[in-house]
Amino acid sequence: MSKQLYTLEFPVRCSPSILYEFLSTPAGLGEWFAEKVDERDNIFYFGWNGSFDKAEVLESEENSFIRFRWLEAPQNEYFEFGIEKSEITNQTILVVKDFAEKKDIKDQALLWDHQVKDLFHRLGN
Question: Which of 41, 64, 65, 104 is deepest in the core (most CB within 10 A)?
Fold first, then answer.
């Protein structure tokens, strides 16, 4: 069964440049995404409970988005943090894109919701 792309959006009260730091640097990601984060040669090492998962940066644009691919994932799968501005409210929106089996999307969305709440706490939201 193949995984499918899904997208989640979270309004956030902070500037795109501050948010981007939390999404694209080891120090920022270590505040909310993983217990420990290191980066060498465009490979990020994410640590949870003593074990590490590795992800490469596929593409990024400062203050706009960063796309990662887990090294053990298929070539066409990735997870991405995007930053958009609402044209109507001028509010910053964090856009999370990820892949999951159709039956697992709801659980994965809840996990992202929990992670993003931790990020917002760190941002003072």
Answer: 65
